[in-house]
C-alpha cells in the first residue's frame, strides 16, 4: 500500500505545476496577457512578417528542390554541429554569397535571429567592457547582454543626445574598456528607425563599436532589399550586422555579417553557434535560393513600398493618424491602451476577416498596448482601406 501511495503522489506531482508558477499563470489571466498558440487561419494577412510573400513563393520552393536534386544533396539533417559533422559545402557557398550581397568580408549563419544575438552579445563584450543599447531593443538582444560579463546601460529610444550624455558619463571613468552600441535599423514593436548616419558619427567620435540588428530591414530598404545600413552606405562603419531570414526572406535562420576576424572569433566563442546542430541542407538551400531571388527582385519590393505609402495616406484621410506611431516601414502600430481593449479591437477586426494581432504588456510597456499591422507586397489597396475603416468605426 505505501508503495502505491508513493507512486500516486509522484503521478499527481508530475501532472501539475509548482504553486508559484500556477500563481504567475493566473496573474497573466487576470491581466488579459496570457499567451496562447493561435490556430491557423485563412484571414487576410496583416500579421505575419512575410513582407514580400517569399514564405509562400512557389518558385523559391521549386528552385530549392531543384538545387538539392542537381547537387545530389539527399540529407534530411545536418547530423551535428558545424564544428563536427554538420558543415557542408552548401553552408560555405551560401555564406560567401550572403557576404557579397551585403558588401562585407564574411558571413556566419546561425539557426535563428535569437541564437545570433545571443551568440554575438554573450561572446564579444568582455568583463569591464561597456554596452549601450536602445531601450526598445528586442528581447534576444537584452538576453544576450545579460549573458555577457560587460556592464550595460540603456539609452532613451532613438535619442542620440541621451546616448552621448551616457557615453560621457560612464566612459570617462573606464578608458581601457571597449564600448559597444547596439540598436535596430527597424524596431519590431514601433516600426521606426534610428538616425544611423548620426549614430555612426557618434561611434567614431567616442571610439565605439556599432552593432545593428537588421531583422526587419532586409527586403525592405536598400538596393535589392539589402537593408538600411547599405541604403545609407554605412556597411564599413558597422562592426556587426545581425540579419534574420524569418521576415522578408520567408525562410528560417539568421546571419552575422562583418569581418573575417569577427567570423573567426564567433566560430570559436559563440556558444549558440558551437553547441547546436547546424541548419539542415534543405533549410540552407532555401536561404541560398531566397537570397538569389531577392538579388533579382524589383516588383515585390516596389509593391511593398507603395503599400506602405498608401497605408500612411489612408490613416491620414480616415482620421486615424493620432493612434499610429510614425513609421515608413511595413510595421504600423495603432496604440490602444489596455490589454483588454487591444484584444477586443483585434477580435473585432478578425471577425471582419482581417488577421490583425494585439501586442500586449508586458511585451510592450503598460499603457502602450497596440495593434500591429504588418504590411505586405500582396495586400490590396481595398484591403488596406477596409481594415482601417473598420478600425475607425470601432474606436471612434
From TrEMBL:
Keywords (A to Z) from UniProt: Pyridoxal phosphate, Transferase
InterPro entries: Aminotrans_II_pyridoxalP_BS, Aminotransferase_I/II_large, AON_synthase_class-II, PyrdxlP-dep_Trfase, PyrdxlP-dep_Trfase_major, PyrdxlP-dep_Trfase_small
Domain Aminotransferase class I/classII large: 43-377
Pfam families associated with the record: Aminotran_1_2
Cofactor(s) needed: pyridoxal 5'-phosphate
Gene3D superfamilies with a match to the protein in the record: Aspartate Aminotransferase, domain 1, Type I PLP-dependent aspartate aminotransferase-like (Major domain)
Associated pathway: Lipid metabolism
The keyword Transferase appears for this protein: yes
MF annotations from Gene Ontology: pyridoxal phosphate binding; transferase activity
Assigned protein family: Belongs to the class-II pyridoxal-phosphate-dependent aminotransferase family. BioF subfamily.
Name of the molecule in the record: 8-amino-7-oxononanoate synthase
Lineage: Bacteria, Pseudomonadati, Bacteroidota, Flavobacteriia, Flavobacteriales
Amino acid at each position: 500500500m505505501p508503495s502505491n501511495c508513493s507512486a500516486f503522489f509522484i503521478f499527481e506531482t508530475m501532472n501539475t505545476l509548482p504553486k508559484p508558477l500556477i500563481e504567475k499563470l493566473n496573474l497573466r489571466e487576470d491581466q488579459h496577457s496570457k499567451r496562447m498558440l493561435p490556430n491557423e487561419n485563412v484571414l487576410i494577412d496583416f500579421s505575419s512578417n512575410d513582407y514580400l510573400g517569399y514564405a509562400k513563393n512557389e518558385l523559391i520552393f521549386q528552385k530549392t528542390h531543384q538545387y538539392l536534386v542537381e547537387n545530389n544533396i539527399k540529407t534530411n539533417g545536418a547530423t551535428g554541429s558545424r564544428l563536427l559533422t554538420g558543415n557542408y559545402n552548401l553552408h560555405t557557398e551560401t555564406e560567401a554569397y550572403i557576404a557579397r550581397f551585403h558588401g562585407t568580408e564574411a558571413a556566419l549563419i546561425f539557426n535563428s535571429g535569437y541564437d545570433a544575438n545571443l551568440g554575438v552579445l554573450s561572446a564579444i563584450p568582455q568583463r569591464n567592457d561597456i554596452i549601450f543599447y536602445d531601450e526598445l531593443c528586442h528581447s534576444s538582444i537584452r538576453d544576450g547582454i545579460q549573458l555577457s560579463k560587460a556592464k550595460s546601460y540603456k539609452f532613451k529610444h532613438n535619442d542620440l543626445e541621451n546616448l552621448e550624455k551616457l557615453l560621457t558619463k560612464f566612459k570617462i571613468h573606464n578608458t581601457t574598456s571597449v564600448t559597444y552600441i547596439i540598436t535596430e535599423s527597424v524596431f519590431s514593436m514601433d516600426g521606426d528607425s534610428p538616425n544611423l548616419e548620426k549614430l555612426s558619427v557618434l561611434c567614431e567620435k567616442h571610439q565605439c563599436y556599432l552593432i545593428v540588428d537588421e531583422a526587419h530591414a532586409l527586403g525592405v530598404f536598400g538596393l535589392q532589399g539589402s537593408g538600411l545600413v547599405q541604403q545609407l552606405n554605412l556597411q564599413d562603419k558597422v562592426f556587426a550586422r545581425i540579419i534574420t531570414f524569418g521576415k522578408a526572406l520567408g525562410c528560417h535562420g539568421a546571419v552575422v555579417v562583418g569581418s573575417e576576424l569577427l567570423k573567426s572569433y564567433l566560430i570559436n566563442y559563440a556558444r549558440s553557434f558551437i553547441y547546436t546542430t547546424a541548419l539542415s541542407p534543405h533549410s540552407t538551400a532555401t536561404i541560398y535560393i531566397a537570397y538569389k531571388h531577392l538579388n533579382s527582385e524589383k516588383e515585390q519590393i516596389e509593391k511593398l513600398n507603395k503599400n506602405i505609402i498608401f497605408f500612411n495616406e489612408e490613416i491620414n484621410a480616415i482620421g486615424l493618424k493620432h493612434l499610429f506611431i510614425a513609421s515608413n516601414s511595413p510595421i504600423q502600430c495603432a496604440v490602444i491602451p489596455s490589454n483588454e481593449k487591444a484584444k477586443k479591437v483585434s477580435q473585432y477586426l478578425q471577425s471582419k476577416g482581417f488577421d490583425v494581432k494585439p501586442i500586449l504588456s508586458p511585451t510592450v510597456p503598460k499603457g502602450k498596448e497596440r495593434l500591429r499591422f504588418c504590411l505586405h507586397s500582396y495586400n490590396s489597396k481595398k484591403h488596406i482601406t477596409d481594415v482601417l475603416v473598420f478600425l475607425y468605426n470601432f474606436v471612434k
